[in-house]
Known about the structure:
With 259 residues, this protein is mainly alpha-helical.
Amino acid sequence: xxxxxxxxxxxxxxxxxxxxxxxxxxxxxxxxxxxxxxxxxxxxxxxxxxxxxxxxxxxxxxxxxxxxxxxxxxxxxxxxxxxxxxxxxxxxxxxxxxxxxxxxxxxxxxxxxxxxxxxxxxxxxxxxxxxxxxxxxxxxxxxxxxxxxxxxxxxxxxxxxxxxxxxxxxxxxxxxxxxxxxxxxxxxxxxxxxxxxxxxxxxxxxxxxxxxxxxxxxxxxxxxxxxxxxxxxxxxxxxxxxxxxxxxxxxxxxxxxxx
Length: 259
């Protein structure tokens, strides 16, 4: 049975993973023109904005949590996770620059997600919302990779998808630790509330980005199935379980998520 990684192990992982971004072929340029894909690029502009948050409140919540559990390394692990998300945003922004599209400074969907993240600034709420966004992101970036015929953007999406698997492990491990002492009825209520919130989030993202999902080969039904299938993996991973006889494994992927 896989055990939770320590914060120090996650620091080592994030430090090592930064080197993978050196393989992106930026010298090729976008290799597409803006006009034929302008409607899809509008979706990517909004998503890029969401990847560029400074996450000051999340950092504050992480510090409080680290202090409460006596794990100062968690602060650095969270900072490195945030930096990796910002690297995603910068890579998407650099591609937008190459194709001649502006970077947005404001978007309604991004503002809504920030509102929900800020509604109750504790580490469980933050981690839950981030897990849900990351889960939908797996479906989104897979769609972008198929929808826009830019080898450079496809390489960026492939690296982001490789990053998202450990990100989801990082977040679901934290939720498993947070939920492990919750009694059965409160735990059941927590998971049911998550299902309701996730359903609303999935619908909002579809409305905002349906052109990208459709261009990437999804119908509304297949989009629902994909997002909920991935979120089911996350719910299974965050469910408290025994950690006796742990076996250390590298934080690499959750099986079957890159489909």
